[in-house]
Amino acid sequence: MTFVNAKAEPRASSNTxxxxxxxxxxxxxxxxxxxxxxxxxxxxxxxxxxxxxxxxLNLQEAMLGQPAETAITHxxxxxxxxxxxxxxxxxxxxxxxxxxxxTLTTVEAAGQLLTMQEVTQFKExxxxxxEIVIGVAHDLRTPLTAVQGYVELxxxxxxxxxxxxxxxxxxxxxxxxxxxxxDDLLDIGQLESGYTMVMHRLDIAELLLKSxxxxxxxxxxxxxxxxxxxxxxxxxxxxxxxxxxxxxENLLSxxxxxxxxxxxxxxxxxxxxxxxxxxxxxxxxxxxxxxxNRIFQRFYRIRDRARADxxxxxxxxxxxxxxxxxxxxxxxxxxxxxxxxxxxxxxxLTIENNDAEGGKVxx
Length: 363
Ligand code: ADP
What we know:
Distance between the termini: 63 Å
Number of helices: 9
Order of helices and strands: HEEHHHEEEHHEHEEHEEHEEE
Low-confidence stretches: 356-362
Number of domains: 3
Structural class: alpha+beta
CATH superfamily of the largest domain: Histidine kinase-like ATPase, C-terminal domain
Radius of gyration: 27 Å
Mean pLDDT: 89
Strand order of the largest sheet: 11-12-10-9-7-13
Bound molecules: adenosine-5'-diphosphate
Shape: elongated
CATH architecture of the largest domain: 2-Layer Sandwich
């Protein structure tokens, strides 16, 4: 392998007056590329980089041919370089506040290509928008609580006739829906503003059992059946209990909302190596394949006849995704329209778990 820093002048033209060969032109283009680009050979050594990459990553001529692992010091990029997959992406924040979307492409026997696209402006716009949303939601919450309180008091201050009681009930239903939406907006704003979640060592099996107990009467009230298949021994993770309960309860609420009459819901969890996998399955209306990725986006709701009358803000799954990812996990869905859905998330375990596999308890 020849190490060809793009900084080195290609043997072009100026001496010979001939146009550059394709290889020379390619070298020039790489050197001048606006986006940082870096090539690593199959042995993990730095082969070639653009001027923009040299400036951003502080690469010197002398580093040519050195192992990328030692030459590159940024922790996020070092972590990216250790990836085993053919294509891996990661958001990288530099010390000077600039943010990049870095992509590492691996071609077997040839090496790796690192490309970085700046997204600083986009991130700043997103942050400004989140701040506006949090501000507005906050300002709405206080007067709304007062309105809710007064409407609830109407019943107590004088006898209401049947029509008046019906109107009060309708007003309260609307007010509760607005309050839920505001709470969801505040949650998503807080989660996306990058605040650090307080994490403690907790037993997720116990947390799931509590959610199961809380939800059983709600599920039965809706004419559905809830089955819980949970481990009997503790499963220790590092997490935020309130946020994880919110994740499970959002998934259970959806399993109720989008179910069929007399259907069922199953909450289950099991340990697998260094992880725990939690699933909420339902016998509901299901999700078309082309919608399965989009439903985790903020405000995304599927608009079809089966769901036309089901209320919601489209924020529940965005909150689920943000919380799970802040715990170092991942969430996904498997579903067949008309048959049901299974929402699952995986979380890393803490090292304190012993090796004994937890037994299952059917609640
Ligand atoms: P919301 O329920 O408030 O609309 P979510 O973010 O929780 O918002 O869900 C997004 C969309 O995903 C929903 O509008 C619904 O169409 C679909 N969805 C979520 N959970 C289920 C489920 N268990 N079964 C069928 N569709 C679901």
